[in-house]
Amino acid sequence: MSGNLIKLSRNTENAPRSCVSTQTVAFSHYNHISAQLGIDPKSGEIVAGGVKAQAKQCLANIKAIVESVDHVMDDVVKITIFLKNILDIDALDAVYATFFQSYLPARTTVAVAALPMGDALVQIDAVISNGEGTPSPESRRDPTYDSIPQARNFMREMAFHSQARNFMRDQMRTGEQVFFHQSIGEQTGEAARDTENEPGKVARNTEHAPKSPASTQTVAFSHYNNISAQLPIDPKSGKLVAGDVKKQAGQCLKNIKAILENINVPFDDIVKTTIFLKNLSDIEAVNKVYTTFFPDSAIARAEGYFPARTVVAASGLPMHALVQIEAVVSHGDGTPPQAVEDRHRIVIEANNTENAPQSSLATQTVAFSHYNHISAQLGIDPRSGKMVAGGVKEQAGQCLKNIEAILESIDHGMDDIVKVNIALKNIADSGAVDEVYTTFFRSDLPARTTVGVSTLPMDALVQIDAIVSNGEGTAPGLS
Q1: Cβ–Cβ under 8 Å, residues 330 and 224
Q2: Which of 64, 120, 147, 469 has the fewest CB atoms found within 10 Å of its own CB?
């Protein structure tokens, strides 16, 4: 089911192209960028030099993709950085700061066991705001669709600054740090599109959670909010909490809760979590803490609601932490000029099907507004509850069959997917996985990130999660 919006899948010659992914896939108010390596698009090779040179090329590739769709780097709302060596983080940050000068996106940084192309030291993917939205099939057929109205630029500027002043005045009463942001290109008369009714980006920090010089704690745009990955840092001391992985997991979740409370968002508005563990064997200990935070409200407890979830084995985490947790949050209020009252017209829809493996700690699919988050799938046969026989191709096929079954249970299909994340036990298995992967899609391929990890749950060889377009939205009474 595509609803009344369509995906826009695009590539540019100014960034490396792939036969198994699209560089940028936009749907509604968000645009997902495939993970970029430090590849020179002209030579097709990793650039010479160390991690700083590669990081610069990764970000240059993202910038080229972003600019090819008439956006700017300040439209980035979330960055995920995968390093081969977590100790390279300072070198990376020195380069990173040159690409984001007026505002810092939400961010996750993690070290993984392997990256595509053996010489790669860093890989970066991104989510950007897409204020113009994506069109309906009918409007794309309209020959005037790409016209650029300039007459309303002045009124657009006046409306935006009025909304910004009012919003910031209200927020300053809370004493917390807030940035109401509109991209630089949209603040000038050179805007490439009419942004009069586009939502703005709201980036916020609170003193009640750890602050970072490299990221903003929470960046909201339209009806979603991305939370920077939280380490087990005590915001008062700025140090890791003492104790084992349970103590650390609890602090990560406390930090997320503090960030959400600062923006008046309930904990059960989280639609997806990703847990990065230094030792995957710690997952049972983390789960014991996790269930003390979810479900949070009486309504959520009555429904047994858990967000969609992915668990990833990290080779290293910042500050030598044992665990790090990131979250994606539904944001029913929207961002100005969207009306706060819109929250009453959008609901979370959480669904499970018997045709895919179920978990007591995660919902298979959690939809909100125009997006749907799918929990990570292993190569498990839902009937037997066991890993399918065979190698990585068989397991990858089962992962994708499970995702397909979940999507079909909510009247969607594989071509509604906008982004796929693949974790491999052996990065050399990428080619085998690709042979299976491409058979599941009939139209443009989704954006994609692939990493190698040291281990996977159930000693699996591959794990896949997905983000899906949800054109019909999630208005009350639709399900």
Answers
A1: yes
A2: 147
